[in-house]
Amino acid sequence: MFGFTSWRRKRIAKRSFPQEWESILSENVSYIQHLPGGLQKKLKELITIFLNETNFEGCAGLEITDKIRVSIAAQACILILGTDDYSFVYNDLRSVLVYPKPYVAKIKNRNNSFFVEEGFQQRHGEAWSRGTIVLAWDQVQNGARDIHDGQNLVFHEFAHQLDYEYGATSQVEDEYEESQFLSWARVVGDEYQQFVSDLQRNRETLLDSYGATNLAEFFAVITECFFERPTELKNQHPKLYHQLSEFYRQDPETYIKS
Q1: So what's the pLDDT on residue 1?
Q2: Where do the domains of the chain lie, and which CATH numbers do they carry?
Q3: pTM of the complete model
């Protein structure tokens, strides 16, 4: 099955990249301009595959355009530029829902075993384990505009998607206590605990405080930092940078300069 998937996707990747899409990338995804030539070519191949397989749906009256599709696809595919096997390109992703701006979602908070409190929360995006990503378009544009601020909604939510598919944070939860070496579980687990401790002591941190919510959010936040502030992350958290470089099979510090 995977052999056929890889073969089919390689054929799709060979399709010519429309000039209209080139213009969209140039105007809306400045990150691509910093990529080496080989990675730019590979990114366009991944975008072509992504757009061939992924359904986009506009919400709250938003009309889906190529600008929206290509801008989101490009940023999502930056995360998987390290892959050499096209059998693994967001296999569990089914659809991307796009709102024009932050939206309100219904939430449930369980205060104890017997009482559930319902409410509403404004959100910029979210990733569902069933293969759906939800994004606010204006926040997508904001994230793409500044590639050095460590804030990118598409990177964040698609990191969650990769976490669902590969169990990045479940491995930390399952193996942290048993890990004796500088493995993924040990390094990420230690970094997360230190990060929470630093926030509790009001120490300044490179990472967004939202990462202290739980391990899944920590993974999404460090992914944003890894791709947008790699030099700072490598200098301040070298072991964490190394583990992320191994996970994503990329070294953005070599081409994304502060």
Answers
A1: 47
A2: 167-258 (3.40.390.10)
A3: 0.92
